[in-house]
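G., the chain you wanted modeled:
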Amino acid sequence: MNAEIHWQADADDRRALAGRTDWSQLTGIEQLWGELDRLYGEAPALDAPHGRHPEQLTYRELHLRIEQAAAAFVALGLAPGERVALFAENGPRWLVADQGLMRAGAADAVRGSAAPSDELLYILEDSGSVALVVESAALLGKLGFDHGALAALRFVVVLEGEAPAVAPWPCLDWAALLERGAAAPQAPPSPPDPGRLATLLYTSGTTGAPKGVPLSHANLLHQIRTLGVAVNPSPGDRVVSVLPIWHAYERTAEYLLLACGCHQTYTTLKQLRPDLQRVRPSYMISVPRLWEALLSGFEDALAAMPARRQKLLKAALAVGRLHCTSRRQALDLTLTQEAPLARLQGAALAAITWPVQRLAAALFWPKVRQQLAGGALRTAISGGGALAPHVDGFFEVIGIELLVGYGLTETSPVLTCRRPWANRRGSSGRPLPGTSIRIVNPESRAPLGWGERGLVLARGPQVMAGYFHRPEATASAIDAQGWFDTGDLGLLIPDGSLLLTGRAKDTIVLSSGENIEPGPLEEALAASPLVEQVLVVGQDERLLGALVVPRADPLAAFRSQLSDASQEALLRALKGEFNRLLAARPGSRPDERLGGVALVEPFSLENGLLTQTLKQRRDRITARDQAAIEALYGR
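Predicted structure as tokens:
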């Protein structure tokens, strides 16, 4: 039987969606805000405590500002169907501008203000934007008033600070825009066409010029209507937003959570820890790197505790992991269908370990949850990359429901997500209602069977129609039957859950011809307390190698135990330690071993080696550390 599934909402999904606000009547995202004003009125919607202009908006104030912005945009000459570039960072003003443009019938082409100037100018030109909304006058100056891409602009809006006094086009600051909108007639209703363009998002362009991904209102509305199968927020629930708002993942999450009446606080990576304690969020949407950082923070705190308390907590964690693993085995929530005897064994182990886990859940884990996330976090969603099993398991033990979603910018973005009642750790969950997933042979495109690894194809209401003005790129990504090539490798198990195993383009081919997926190996290595970040390399080489960003204190302790303190001895010892980890993986292969280890500097947003959603840029890392890679292979 071919591994293909078209997921219609089952009974559990229907129960999760029952009683929620029915948004089926909407034909555009911008229609949300009037309804939310009616439902929640003076309830707090947005809070931005940091930056030059701290702001708080109720749902009524948010709706009013969106209407004012839309009226101003229309008064400035913006017409339905036109596009406006929006280059700015998280905050209420971004959301008001975004929805004001949609309310005016237009679409926005979005990117963060930290992107290189040449990339922003490329997006401005490629999108055919007639106007620009920009973070600050400084960024506007960096783009260059006299650049050809800016010459034909109809107007410019500056979100933060004052607008330039002299400019070749009308240039308004935020207050002036809202003042103009308050004095202008209300914007006419948007065209009642859910297929119209809502936004243009641009791929990172690591393998060429960025491609525009046009998402329609129908694409985005599908997410709002179906993501309730994973999260069930209530009005007034607190949410912390830290990811870039222009990214498809964060943006869709914001639309959804605000549509549920939540109170959202914008924060930054720098302010995240204190804001978690202050806000005490009920829900949090983030990426694997953040959950890894929270776990690292716990491990650092653990290392600083007295030896007896360390030993007690480590034992409680070990028993907790065994309990959770056994419980999932008993409930048949593992990644393989369990035989009746294995389920009985799991139930027995779960029962034996339950008293210890129960005691830890009363004495230890509330304090850990308080220190990590404020103590009120009920459900956390991880997306934008694979979540390492040891991270996944840790949050399960301490009592935080960590769900995982999967998708791409081209799919608005969510294709699959884990359900709370079917939370198969290690999987990316089942498709959203109305979504189809198919696994095919990467070369022949022949459909594969259940449990067979191949290329993941997707089809559904959230999938883009095609790249913006790129018919050739569209033809290579979407076939005649509408199946989108995700570029990911994975397999389906019979309950409909998707297991991802790597990126097709990330596959390392050794000189022996063996194909190695680096992702699972990197997840295993990241479980070591010695490792902060890691990238596996080895294309066309005889053996794999690892570029490791070490954790300083654990590395120093590890080195102190060696009889030879030289760098060469340290690297040999690390290679041995890491290869033991790799060998212990279920299904480990002899080729999945390291021939060498190199210690390198961190991968960060600042040095351009992480994306805005904190995924590693493999090509840029290997370019920076080329000398270390050559040294690994004796060149």
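The CA atoms of residues 390 and 527 lie 6 Å apart.

Shout if anything looks off.
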